[in-house]
Each structure stands twice: as C-alpha cells, then as structure tokens.
Specification:
179 residues, single chain, 2 domains
Amino acid sequence: MTDDFPILAAVAASPTHPYELLEHLQALGVRVTRSTLYRRVDGLIGRGYLQAEDGRGDTGHFRRLLRLTDAGRDAAGKEAAEVLRREPLESPLFALAVAAAGVSQRQDALGVLRPRLAAAARRLTEQERTLRETEADPWSQAARERRIAHLQADIGWLQGLLGRRFAGHGMERITRRAG
C-alpha cells in the first residue's frame, strides 16, 4: 500500500474538496497534515490519478473539487485488494478499501474477502466449540462470548458486502455456505 492510498480511497467514496478530505482522513485516524495532503493531491493530479475542477464556492472563495480518473480508480482498486487481504476488519484503512473496491469495479478487489469470510467462519466455529467444551471462569467465558458476537457481526457484514458486489456472479452460494 502506498501513502497515497487513503487519499485515492477516500476520493473514490465521494468526490470532495481537499479540506473536507483532510477532515475525513483525520476523523478516521489517518495521520496526515494539511501540507502533506495538499502536496500528495498535487502529485496525484500530476500523475493523472485525480482530476481537479476549480471553481468558486458560495462565499466566493476558491474551491477545488477532486474526482478520481479512470487511472486513479484502477490504482485505488489494485491497492484496495491488498489492504482487504491484510488489514484487520476494524481498521480505518479497511473501511476505505471497501469503498475503493466497490467503486473500482475490479472483480479481484472485493473477491479477496472470500478467504477472510471463510477464516472468520472457522474462528467462529473454534470459539463456539471451546465455549461449549471448556469450563472457564466467568470473565474468560464473557470474553469468549464477546469474541463470538464480534465474529458473527463480522461474518454478517462480509456476507452483505459480498452479496451486494457479486449478486449474479455465483457468490450467493459461497457466502451462504461460509455462514
């Protein structure tokens, strides 16, 4: 993943102005300064990944609207696949990657979630079996129940993502079997 991925992924989710992009990335927990963001945005425009539409806002101030180009959409999709393979589900980069993968229309981007879904289903089965077979103190049991609830929520969320993305591509069968 390049340092530009969060910018491409955030713009993939929705065309935006640089200052809104900065606020969005900082709210997600991505560490970026104003000067670094503006420098990276200019570089992405120069490489043909972003398109900037300059204009005036309601108050007459200069405003620049950023959109992904086809090359930017492809780059964001390629990097999204890698982020979806390795980032924890609760990571802000994972959420950005889901948005970028959905916009990129790359079959491999969200397709990498199938193994993640299968692994989560296996962990859920292990946790449920351990909970049934092991006598533990109430605190350990509560912690295991919490992990089970999180895995169930993650599996449901992944199934929803895959179902929306791959409807009509045979994925319904796979996601039902993994759940």
